[in-house]
Amino acid sequence: MTRRSTPHVLLIYLIYLAAIAVTTALLVFWVVVVQRYNSDINQLVSRLGFEWNQFHWFVTTSGAGLFFLVFVALTYLLALTMGERRYSRKQEEFLTNVSHELKSPVAAIKLHAQTLQQDDVRRDDQKRFVSYIVREAERVGTLVDNLLESSRILSGGATGDLRPIRLSQFFDEYQKAAEARFDLRQTTLSFDIDTRSTVRASDEALLRILDNLIDNALRFTAEGGKILCQVRDRRSEAEIMVADNGIGIPKRELPKIFDRFYRLSREIGNRRRGTGLGLSIVRGLVQDLSGTIQALSTDDQPGTRFKIRLPRIKVEPNASEGL
Predict the structure, then answer these.
(1) Do 276 and 262 contact (CB within 8 A), yes or no?
(2) Which residues pair with residue 310 across a beta bridge?
(3) Residue-averaged pLDDT of the chain
(4) What CATH code is assigned to 163-320?
(5) Within a 13 Å sphere around the CA of 207, how many CA atoms are in the beta-carbon half?
(6) Domain ranges of the chain
(7) Do residues 282 and 293 make contact, with C-beta atoms less than 8 angstroms apart?
(8) Does 275 score more than 90 pLDDT?
(9) Neighbour-count burial for 84-103, b at 16+ CB within 10 Å, e otherwise
(10) Helical H runs in the chain?
(11) What whole-number percentage of the chain has pLDDT above 70?
C-alpha cells in the first residue's frame, strides 16, 4: 500500500514546488517591472493627481501581499490534500482490518459448527466447541456494535436514554459477566470497587466503555499479565481506572490514541491489532456522559492506565431504590 501511494505523494509535492516557484517568479517579475518602469509609472500617477511615493509603496506592498496570500493558499491546499490522503489511507487499512476481524471468527465458527455435525463428537468436546462458538459470535457482535457506535458518534447522534446508575451495583453485575465475556486464560483480570457514586449514564454506554478498555488491555498485555479495574470516589466525580502491566504506549503516540482509525505501533506477537475504533468510541461515549478520559503511560515503566472521571449526581432516596 505504501509503495503504491508513494508516486502520488511525490507528484503532489512536485506540483506544490512548481506552484511556489511560479509564484516566486511572478513576485520577482512584479518588483522588477515596478522598478524598471518607475519613471513611466510616475508620470502616469502624476497625471491622475496622486503622489508617486505613496502610490509606489501601495503598488509594491499590495503585490507582495497578494503573492503572499497565494503562497499561504497553496500551503493550505497542500496540507489539506495530504491530510485527506492520510485519512483515506487509514480508512483503507481500517477496511482491511475489519475484513480480517470478521473473517477469522466466522471461519472459526464455521469449522466448529461443522465438527459438531459429526456423530462421534464427545459430549465434553461439544460443550467446548459450543462455548467457543458463542465467544466468537460475541466477538463478531462486538465488532458490529463498535462500527455502529462509531458511526453514531461521528454523526453526532444521541447516546440514548441516560438515567441515574449506582456504580457499585453496575460493577457487581459486570464482574460476573466479564469472566464469560473475555478470554482470560493467559491474563488475570481483577476488580477493586470502592464507590458510593451515582452517575448519569446508560448500562450500554458503561458496558461498551469497559469492554473496549479491557479488550485493548488484553491485546497489549503478554501472557501472565495483569489487568486491574478500579473505581474510586472523588469530591464531585467518580473515577474509573483500567490499568495493565503490558507493553505500554510510547509518549509520542499518547495524543493520537483516541483518534479514529489510529492503531498503536507496538504489538505482542501475532495477536490481532484491532480496528482503531475502540478508544475513539470510548472517548466519544465518555464525552456524551459529560466526563473526561486520560491515558497515562511512561517509557521507563510497563503498562498503561486509562482514567475516566464522570460527574457524580445526587439522587433522592426514593429514586435510588429502583436502581
Answers:
(1) yes
(2) 238
(3) 77
(4) 3.30.565.10
(5) 18
(6) 2-89, 163-320
(7) yes
(8) no
(9) eeeeeebeebbeebbeebee
(10) 2-36, 38-47, 52-116, 123-155, 167-181, 203-219, 278-288, 317-320
(11) 70
